[in-house]
Design goal:
heterodimer; A: alpha+beta; 6 domains; 5-stranded antiparallel β-sheet; 4-stranded antiparallel β-sheet; flat; B: alpha/beta; Rossmann fold; 4 domains; 7-stranded parallel β-sheet
Chain lengths: 733, 549
């Protein structure tokens, strides 16, 4: 079968070839196209081609670019002529991806590919229309050579002052056709010329292989140790952040995300810098351990409780896998010289984040056992992902990702750890559980009122200790300090002094120092000595018998009395009401003010509000002349309009019906007539609104101008513009 | 996982498990760069500070050594960020150097022009600098050597000082070890100081700081100015020096309120140095007018402010600070380090005790219950009078009487803050009292009588807080103090720490009124000693009366 089109070519492919194409370009089968024709359309569409091109490495891209500038159909020979022999190994891969296809006399590129690769592929201009004598270029005058030199590696466009008055060099080149005028100020270097001048090449340098990554060897054991330390630390940080916010929830900004001050507080609490604090919060966020509530409170989710129950490896995997696929870039927080971006906010999303992360991790995974140099890693990544679409690969991103890998413990001392390898390979990470330092269940109490847990503490012990002691230092071990305040906190949480002492004696490997015992006993003794509560009123009496009688009086039960001292009762009712009730049952209470003074006699009450005396009806003061005058004027005007309004409203419909319908010209004539001859006469008009509804108005015409009438409307009393065309008819009143 | 004695925390503290087999070895390894913060019974806390790391650089340790040490002894993996931080901090040291220059006197030289550009633009530094000599060099006013070092330190670019010290006028001094031997730690301390150039040596009270001073003088072999707290201390120094060194009576002068002798070795009191005449410090030029090769500051934690300022100007002379308790409630420890020099030697008190060079001491807090009437008047006392009231209650007197009676036959010191209380106690106990207005002669007589055992009990005010050498005192009873001062408590304990001829232990009683501010202050006062591993035992006044303690 003769292959005439891309669709034909695809039809001719065997299953294996199609499968391989789909493997490279999964977007071709999601969703599955109905037939080959649709597949061909999709495969040659710009978005799909762009995706396929993005996946090429630098060398593949260079070969593809060469293919794209050749006249179609082209042969392998033509490709190798502009590149080198090894390009032959690349072509099958490009064909496999459907980026090239084979026809009878060579290869072609799918439509749109050239567009996807850009207007000026490899900095080359369009092909020349005319046949050129390229040999002549060698004899070009010096001025022309200079121009060529500037343009040869692109961009192929040059700006000159005026095409009509070119400089000598440009003139010669235009004459010979080595430059083509594009517009008044622009000339273009034809493709053939550039290729000839480039020495029959397209690219200055063929980047056939991935640049080497420079690295230094690290001891495997210390890498693992560092990684496990990072993992432990990161898990601790995450727990710390969420526990911190569970107690003192942070508020999100109105624009979303965490404010600068809250971030600072968090970083202070954790003892890490703000960038790191932001990262910890972000990872917890993408892993679903915290959420921003409707009232802008940032709180841990119930997922956090589930997470806490899991093994260390599961907890770590939950965080790292969420981080791996996230499109958010926490590194943007605190990026120097840029505006403030809030963590947990909406501005951290970057389309290339996940792919860049993958790329970096794959490179790390390929360079096991060595600490890679970030700059050479960037060069390698750039070769693997040379595409410039959406800004291309950013060095910043790459450095941030490396930093995050270290924080997460995917790397230790810059080298990918076994945990990281297992994680990326999807293997079992439970080695973490066995490599973590063993949890300790005891503390060492010292005579300076500190307790030290010489390793990660078991969860319950840690929680109990956190209640009765302040954490002074964190890390592999934890240093707790006991103080009056911390012991009080424990007591506030319902522990008794004995319980605290027992717990410490049980947990401590060292004997409890006596001063601490005394401290606990002293605080416990004093704790709760003072009691504070709310009450609305009190009843006191120096005769306990009467108090006893009142508390025994069944009728007074509604007062909700409670005896807080032999001579004092408290009630939930306010004083006035309590007194009223007491009186009604035959008791004789007297009121006391805040200072304990007896309030004799009924209380003389005063209003809380401001005085607002009522209007006085009676003789009026005689108003002055001016006031009367203006009152009159106001009255007259009001009267005129209101009378007219009421009577007119009544006759409005009638009047409207009675109004002769006039054409615009007639209206204009009538109006100018009235204005000229009876300038003060009120008129009755019909006026159409935007919807064509005609209403009746009474107006005093003021002025005619360009198709409209300026007049005072009696109904509103305002001066208004009426469009002549909308006036349906006019009559004098 | 290794099983080392160290735990490196992420907040740059280092915990050392003292019960671990490697702890001694490890302590020695981390001492050059980590500062000892607390040394209670089981776990000692060290801290990595910028200053400490830079001092380590100055002493020739590099970042790699520090990191290796941390990793080697650490029980858990060391946080990577901390290691990076250590390396970065240490690399800041030495980018700037102070050097002597034959033309310009003193110059600041850099290996990193960026840093120099940064510092010469700093507001605090600019006025201290002279002309720019070239891209990497700038002149410094020689008198500003201390100032510029201090300011650079604050900026985070510590200058390495190659300008050296003046030798001072040579004077032959040597230790005279007849019948005694310098202890190993004393020698280490003196050597640590000498190699460092200048600095502070921290040793417990009674551990023989004078000998360290004498050994330093023997290293310097030059005229020496010794600054001490008071005349009694001056005389004690004089006697010690006569006994321990080759110096003779004529070579040692006293420069105090009563005498103004200037000799190759001159001992001056802080009081006379800071005495003002017509608004100027009349005696401060003693520092400058003589070519001292060494200046020793005794009890450097008490250094008064004018001397601070003056010390900044004499950076080309070697300076040695001696103290037992470098804690200042005014937070001026940092100033001491930057002006006198960094800590060159520090050792936990308990370690010296274990070596037998200071007496083992037992600290006992005796809590007395106020009587009902006392409680009431305490509760109604004016806030500023409260401490005085509860610290001087009559109930305490009975307890002190009982304690003195219990320890009859031993050498007892009763120490307090308030003179009326002390007068009262002296009368009740029938023992002599030494206070601020006791004449010098009388003081010396009483101390001498106490040393010989003629007098067995003395009531003393805060004049005896420092520098009074009473080797045979075994019991101290503290009845009141300067509020919550930690160093006063330690210094008072220090009075009874001299090893006893019969190896007896010492007892330090602190009598405290229960449930009052006295108790709160006592807790703060005890912190320093608790951090040194002294565990207080609390007993009840009733137990004292029943003899159950």
């Amino acid at each position: 079968m003769e292959i005439r089109s891309y669709a034909d070519y695809l039809r001719a492919l065997d299953d294996a070839a199609l499968i391989s194409m789909f493997t490279h370009r999964p977007d071709l089968v999601t969703p599955v196209p109905p037939d080959i024709a649709s597949l061909a359309v999709r495969a040659s569409s710009a978005p799909s081609l762009a995706r396929a091109v993005d996946a090429l490495n630098k060398w593949q891209l260079q070969v593809l670019e060469v293919c794209a500038i050749l006249d179609e159909p082209f042969t392998e020979k033509e490709v190798t002529a502009l590149t080198e022999k090894s390009a032959l190994f690349i072509l099958p891969g490009l064909i496999e991806r459907g980026l090239l296809y084979v026809v009878k006399d060579g290869m072609r590129t799918p439509t749109n590919l050239k567009e996807v690769l850009g207007n000026e592929i490899a900095g080359l201009g369009p092909a020349s229309m005319a046949k050129l004598k390229l040999k002549k270029l060698d004899e070009a005058p010096a001025a022309a050579k200079k121009v060529l030199e500037a343009m040869v590696w692109g961009p192929p466009r040059g700006t000159i002052t005026d095409i009509k008055k070119p400089s000598t060099g440009v003139a010669w080149l235009l004459e010979e056709g080595f430059l083509v005028p594009f517009n008044q100020q622009t000339v273009v270097l034809p493709r053939e010329v550039a290729i000839y001048l480039r020495g029959n090449k397209v690219h200055r340098q063929l980047e056939v292989s991935q640049p080497a990554i420079t690295s230094s060897k690290r001891d495997e054991r210390s890498v693992q140790l560092a990684a496990i330390a990072n993992i432990t630390t990161f898990l601790r940080w995450t727990e710390e952040v969420l526990n911190y916010w569970a107690q003192e929830p942070a508020s999100a900004l109105r624009s979303g995300g965490l404010g600068v001050r809250e971030l600072k507080e968090l970083s202070l609490h954790l003892g890490v810098d703000e960038v790191c604090a932001a990262f910890i919060a972000e990872v917890a966020y993408v892993a679903g351990l915290l959420t921003i509530e409707a009232d802008d409170k940032i709180l841990p989710t119930t997922q956090f409780d589930i997470w806490l129950m899991q093994s260390a490896s599961a907890r770590w995997q939950a965080l790292t896998s969420a981080w791996l696929i996230s499109s958010r870039l926490p590194g943007l927080v605190g990026k120097e010289g840029s505006k403030n971006v809030a963590p947990l906010g909406p501005e951290l999303d970057r389309a290339s984040a996940a792919s860049t992360r993958r790329l970096v991790l794959n490179l790390l995974n390929e360079n096991r056992g060595v600490a890679v140099d970030a700059h050479s890693l960037y060069d390698a990544a750039l070769w693997l992902s040379p595409s410039k679409r959406s800004g291309g690969l950013q060095k910043d991103y790459l450095l941030w990702i490396l930093r995050e890998c270290e924080w997460l413990g995917i790397t230790g001392q810059g080298v990918i750890s076994q945990y990281g390898i297992d994680f990326l390979d999807g293997a079992d990470c439970s080695a973490i559980d066995s490599d973590l330092p063993k949890a300790v269940d005891h503390i060492l109490i010292q005579s300076d009122n500190t307790a030290i847990a010489p390793g990660p503490l078991e969860h319950e012990v840690a929680q109990e200790l956190a209640l009765i002691a302040d954490v002074e230092s964190r890390g592999g071990a934890t240093v707790f300090r006991f103080s009056e305040g911390s012991i009080r906190r424990g007591l506030d949480h319902g522990r008794t002094g004995d319980e605290i002492a027992k717990f410490l004696a049980k947990t401590s490997k060292t004997p409890m120092p006596q001063p601490l015992e005394y401290l606990i006993a002293d605080v416990a003794k004093k704790h709760g000595k003072l009691r504070v509560g709310n009450t609305a009123s009190f009843i006191r009496c120096e005769d306990p018998a009467l108090i006893a009688q009142i508390i025994g009086d069944k009728r007074l039960e509604i007062l909700g009395l409670r005896r807080i001292a032999p001579e004092v009762l408290i009630s939930t009712f306010d004083a006035a009401e309590a007194m009223h009730i007491l009186r009604s049952y035959g008791y004789l209470p007297a009121g006391e003010d805040a200072k304990g003074l007896l309030l004799s006699g009924p209380r003389v009450q005063r209003a809380q509000g401001r005085a607002r005396p009522p209007r006085i009806i009676g003789e009026y003061e005689k108003p002055d002349e001016l006031l009367i005058q203006s009152a009159l004027r106001a009255l007259r005007t009001g009267e005129k309009s209101s009378r007219k309004q009421s009577t007119m409203r009544n006759i409005a419909t009638e009047a409207l019906g009675a109004l002769p319908r006039t054409t615009a010209n007639e209206t204009l004539e009538l109006l100018s007539d009235y204005l000229q001859n009876q300038p003060n006469k009120s008129l009755s008009i019909g006026y159409a609104d935007n919807n064509g509804l005609v209403s009746h108005r009474i107006i005093d015409p003021l002025k005619l101008s360009a198709g409209s009438l300026l007049a005072r409307d009696h109904a509103t009393g305002e001066v208004q513009t009426f469009r002549i065309a909308r006036i349906t008819g006019v009559a004098a009143l | 996982m290794t099983d080392g004695p160290l735990i490196v925390q992420s907040d740059k503290t280092i915990l050392l498990d003292v019960d671990h087999v490697l702890s001694t070895e490890c302590r020695r390894a981390i001492a050059p760069f980590a500062e000892l913060e607390r040394s209670p019974e089981h776990i000692h806390t060290y801290r990595l500070t910028n200053l400490g790391l830079w001092n380590a650089r100055a002493a020739g340790h590099d970042a790699e050594q520090v990191i290796d040490t941390l990793i080697k002894y650490s029980r858990y993996a060391v946080p990577h960020s901390l290691l990076v931080d250590v390396a970065e901090t240490m690399s800041r040291y030495g980018r700037l150097r102070l050097e002597a220059d034959p033309v310009h006197g003193l110059i600041l030289v850099t290996t990193d022009t960026g840093v120099l550009e940064e510092v010469i633009r700093a507001k605090k530094i600019a006025p201290l600098l002279g002309v720019r000599i070239d891209k990497e060099t700038i002149a410094v006013h020689p008198s500003q050597r201390g100032q510029i070092k201090q300011s650079l330190l604050r900026l985070g670019w510590p200058a390495e000082d190659f300008a050296g010290y003046v030798d001072g006028q040579a004077h032959d001094i040597a230790l005279k070890e007849d019948g005694w031997k310098i202890r190993q730690y004393q020698e280490h301390a003196a050597e640590g100081f000498w190699h460092g150039g200048s600095g502070v040596v921290v040793l417990p009270c009674g551990a023989g700081k004078t000998i360290v001073g004498a050994a330093a003088m023997a290293h310097a072999k030059a005229t020496t100015l010794i600054l001490v707290t008071n005349t009694i201390a001056a005389r004690q120094w004089r006697e010690e020096l006569l006994k321990r060194t080759t110096l003779n009576e004529d070579e040692i002068g006293e420069y105090s309120g009563s005498k103004k002798e200037i000799r190759p070795v001159t001992i001056a009191t802080y009081q006379v140095m800071t005495k003002k005449k017509n608004g100027v410090y009349a005696h401060l030029d003693l520092f400058d007018t003589h070519d001292w090769g060494l200046i020793i500051y005794d009890e450097v934690h008490l250094l008064p402010a004018p001397i601070f300022r003056f010390t900044a100007d004499i950076q080309s002379r070697r300076r040695l600070g001696l103290t037992a308790t470098l804690v200042r409630e005014d937070g001026m420890e940092g100033e001491v380090f930057s002006l006198i020099g960094p800590k060159r030697f520090d050792v936990p008190w308990k370690e010296i005790e274990a070596q037998g060079y200071i007496a083992p001491a037992e600290c006992i807090e005796v809590r007395v219950n106020l009587t009902e009437a006392e409680r009431l008047s305490y509760a109604t006392a004016e806030p500023e009078e409260r401490y005085r009231y509860c610290a001087t209650t009559r109930t305490k007197r009975n307890v002190v009487e009982e304690l003195v009676a219990h320890h009859a036959g031993e050498q007892i010191l009763v120490i307090g803050q308030y003179i009326d209380q002390l007068d009262d106690l002296s009368e009740t106990l029938g023992v002599p009292l030494i206070k601020g207005d006791t004449p010098q002669k009388e003081r010396e007589r009483l101390f001498a009588a106490f040393r010989t055992g003629e007098v067995t009990c003395l009531v003393v005010s805060k004049v005896a807080n420092f520098s009074v050498d009473l080797p045979e005192a075994t019991i101290a009873i503290q009845v009141s103090g300067a509020f919550g001062s930690r160093q006063e408590e330690a210094q008072r304990l220090g009075r009874i720490l001299r090893p006893k001829s019969d190896g007896r232990g010492a007892k330090f009683y602190s009598v405290v009124s229960r449930d009052t501010i006295d108790q709160d202050f006592a807790q703060n006062r005890q912190r320093f000693l608790a951090e040194q591993g002294y565990s207080y035992r609390i007993i009840d006044a009733d137990d004292v009366f029943q003899g159950k303690f």
